[in-house]
Specification:
2 copies of one chain form a homodimer. With 245 residues, chain A is of the alpha+beta class. Chain A contains 7 helices and 10 strands. Chain A binds a DNA duplex (19 and 19 nucleotides) through helix 3.
DNA sequence: CAGTGGTCTAGACCACATC
DNA sequence: ATGTGGTCTAGACCACTGG
């Protein structure tokens, strides 16, 4: 008979170093977009070899928590760059293949209290204060996506319609810069639904038209959930893309 | 003035080794599910160090072309295992979270000629012979997905309704075992559409009901396209899931 | 027990960016 | 010239598997 399933206590050194660096990132020791110390410096700091630090950093880079640039250094990942990292989590593209980032238009912003469902997804208690905001993404002036976004009020103190509307780029860049909330990962579930009258008007489609509903929960460090959103996408000129491996 | 943009000719050694191993995989030197030679053996064969072979193999493992198992060896990836690898490319899950693999039911199978669109996607010429098949995926006896699948006839000689219906598991396991065609990667584009009468009947929904349309092109080694399919999913009890990083 | 992949280290050198 | 990350090597040892 086999032994009674001894716990898998083994944890490689580079995994522990990775956790230490990740904790430092979470604590804000280095700002988004800024360089973290060199491999050599971190090796001295943690008392391990450079190769072990390298494996730790490469694991972090694999999860997009940092970005490595040969000859320059390793940088804390950010949503605020001019490049594709700005819209890292945007899976909506134009059908014709034209590379174009959408324009965001705020519809409304309100304080509210978390429903049981929202509370569960955000690890809050039912009735905890949240923000609810709606916005539309437009491609070439035409509305394509209507997002309803729920945020824990505790993490977004001072969020106002004005500050929100003033920001041109991506939502997550805004969250990162203004509130220090960094989105690292998100889970999505997609359904096909019929447009209700309200959404249909905002998306400029007929009521009842088929829409792509994208339900997302976004997480920051240590898998703490910090956003729940539902996006409704009119897939006339746009689509949701994905690659399977 | 800077030099006129010399071509980036640098290619790391482990990348070249990776390409050599990949070519051997493509040539069928080792069968799916079987072990490839050990790192040490491959290092001798290619005249490089074990560490370089390791990096090459880890790159292949990262793309799911092989699977590494500590203490056992490195194995050619397969779609025919009892585990999750059987339905590696299936992104449809039940809403209630119950882990359940669907049952596949063949609707029909026909020879046809590639349309311009299909030919383009499969790198064929318009009019080249293809197979067109339709099947339904059922969860707990209820139809959830209707797939229309186009395959180049040249790669699937001898495909018949009987052989197709006889196979219980995943489509790609069937393709791998019976025709030696290994699906390695796929691109998907999702739209929301209204159900036509035919699809609605097969999916047991009302005509005009919103459906999730999943358009997929699947590739084998060297990015050769070998399948085009459109899946129509009634997302009542199921959804399409994705993780963003 | 032997064989496999996994970890850790140390050193040398390469490619890239900046000064 | 210097400092960064990237590659390549060599060797030692660890964790896991199966005979």
């Amino acid at each position: 008979m086999p032994p009674p399933a001894s716990p898998p206590t083994f944890r490689p050194l580079y995994g522990q170093i990775r956790a230490l660096i990740e904790r430092a990132l979470d604590a804000g020791e280095w700002a988004p977009g800024q360089a973290i110390p060199s491999e050599q410096d971190l090796a001295i700091r943690f008392g391990v070899s450079q190769g072990t630090v390298r494996k730790a950093i490469q694991a972090l880079a694999g999860d997009n928590l940092v970005v490595r640039r040969q000859g320059k250094g390793t940088f804390v990942a950010t949503h605020t760059e001019e490049t594709a990292s700005n819209f890292r989590f945007l899976r909506i593209r134009r059908n014709d293949g034209r590379a174009e980032y959408p324009r965001s238009r705020l519809i409304d912003l309100a304080r509210a209290r978390a429903s049981a469902e929202i509370a569960r997804l955000l690890s809050l208690k039912t009735g905890d204060p949240i923000f609810l905001l709606r916005r539309v993404l437009e491609y070439g002036g035409s509305p394509a996506v209507l997002d309803r976004i729920a945020l824990p009020a505790a993490l977004f103190r001072g969020l106002t319609r004005e500050r929100c509307a003033a920001h041109a780029g991506s939502m997550y860049g805004f969250f990162e810069t203004e509130f220090g909330v960094r989105m690292l990962r998100a889970d999505e579930r997609l359904h096909a639904v019929a447009a209700d009258a309200d959404s249909a008007a905002l998306l400029n489609v007929a009521a009842g038209a088929p829409l792509l509903a994208v339900d997302r929960v976004a997480y920051t460090y240590a898998d703490r959930p910090v956003e729940v959103r539902r996006g409704l996408c009119a897939t006339r000129r746009e689509h949701y893309w994905n690659t399977l491996t």
